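Suppose a colleague, Dr. K., hands you the sequence of a protein chain of 137 amino acids and asks what its three-dimensional shape might be. Before reaching for any lab equipment, you can write down a predicted structure in token form. Begin with the sequence itself:
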Amino acid sequence: MNIVGQTRKFVSTRLLLSVKPKHHKLFAFGLQALTLTPYESLGSNARLVVGNISTAASKIYRLVSNKTLVINFHRLVRESGLVRETSLVNVDFSTFCGFQALCFGVQTGEGRALPVWNASLTYRVTFVGSQNSFVVE
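The predicted structure, expressed as tokens, is then:
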């Protein structure tokens, strides 16, 4: 079986079982935007899946602010064993459409980073680089 077939089987038999049916489409969008394409940022990855900038921003906002999906996401990451003590984790702090999103992605060693934690939050950028201090703290 090829990698696409294996991925589809894994998603349908393992991952979607942990997600409520009403969230399947949003979860599938997140999976496509955040794991099946090289990770740049929440906004740019959303635009790879949805051409309309406003729709992409709206979908990614709903994804990272949906409490049920976020809880499922944390459980899926923990159960998958993606992050280990030796893992390299990237940090992305994106601001768009009036909200901020903080995302951590574990490097795969193949030019990709798989998101392993995210949060939608409110942070007022007070000066250029202040968000970096906020993330480090």
